[in-house]
Amino acid sequence: MSKIPEYPESAAFSKDLKDTIEPVLNSLHDGISELTFYSLLIHKEKYDYRLTRTKSGALLLLRKKNGKDFFVPLNAMPSAAEIEMLAKDGFEPVLIGESILKAFLQNAPEKSELFTTDRDNADYVYLKTDLAGLKGKQFHKKKNHVNSFVKAYSPEVELLTAQNVHDAEAVLEAWQKEHLDIQSDYGTAKAALQLVGEAPFFGIIVYVESKPVGFALGETLCGGETFCTHFEKGIESYKGIYQYLNQMTATRLGDEIQFINREQDLGDEGLRQSKMTYRPCKFIEKYTLK
After folding, report:
1. What is the Cα–Cα distance from 88 to 83, expressed in whole angstroms?
2. Nearest in space to 74 (alpha carbons), one of 145, 142, 26, 144
3. pTM to 2 decimal places
4. Distance CA 81, CA 90 (A)
5. 3-class DSSP state for residue 15?
6. CATH architecture label of 123-285
7. What is the dihedral of CA 204, 207, 211, 212, to 10 degrees?
8. CA distances from 225 to 35, 36, 170, 286 (A)
């Protein structure tokens, strides 16, 4: 941890800190979608990520969002006194993992009333077999969308590699042209595609008549039993592309994968309804101050 300065000093999140920070992130078992080295790396410009550590040994990720300052505890919560110090400097805790909060409350149970679940940032987790099979009444509409897509377009699927990543980039550019009027994740998706071949990502590309029309990209969490889908982008004139991407990603994953984390809804009601229609089997809870 010698490369990471003690608070109030901090170091910019970068590849240079990979050997220091990645083992810490890999040891986390809560399954929070944001907390992998490469997920943080592709978001570092958006959130101005920095790293610092406290005297008590807490490793903190500092971030900015909507003009506010936050800290994310990566290995442990700071002490109560350090939390107060950070609060005076304008930093609020977010994305607190359940195991980290539980360990903190063992020594300070009186603080439990200060924390609450952050529903907007809870990760949706699904059984891989549900998303791959789409069996039963609850998935009837999803299955129909997939079947219609296959019948209309006779798609082909390839694994996403450094050799064909330019096709995924073409899909992303086409998608961006259709979404210029919204605040999107275009920049982070582009950064992720630039790391294909270096980062331990897994992805697929869907082709229709040799034209790339959609891609999905993600990585494994929790020692390899959970896959996290970071990005799905499709050309929406191809009806059913997203249902097809979802199913094909689940189908192509290895047998060791049992769950698929499809990240949070960020409080978007339409996105929340869409994620719920796939019947999550559980949520990865994240905590913050009330």
Report:
1. 9
2. 26
3. 0.95
4. 14
5. helix
6. 3-Layer(aba) Sandwich (3.40)
7. -20
8. 16, 15, 31, 20
Scanning the structure block, which residue is given the tokens 């800190």? 17
CATH of 11-116 among 3.40.630.30, 3.30.70.141, 3.30.559.10, 3.90.1150.10: 3.40.630.30
Tokens at 140, concatenated = 């009837």
| The Cα angle at residue 148 between residues 143 and 149, in degrees rounded to 5 | 100
What are the tens digits of pLDDT across the range 94-128?
A: 999 999 999 999 989 999 999 999 999 999 999 99
Tokens coding 40: 């943080």
Domain pair 11-116 / 123-285, same fold: yes
Tokens (6 digits) for 199: 């980062």
- Whole-number Å distance between alpha carbons of 280 and 259: 10
> pLDDT (tens digit, 9 = 90+) per residue, 132-172?
999 999 999 999 999 999 999 999 999 999 999 999 999 99
CA distance 278 to 267: 17
Q: What are the structural domain ranges in the chain?
A: 11-116, 123-285
129-134, long-range: CB < 8 A, 24+ apart: 130/278, 130/279, 130/281, 131/246, 131/247, 131/249, 131/250, 131/260, 131/278, 132/247, 132/250, 132/251, 134/247
Report the DSSP pairing between strands 115-117 and 59-65: unpaired
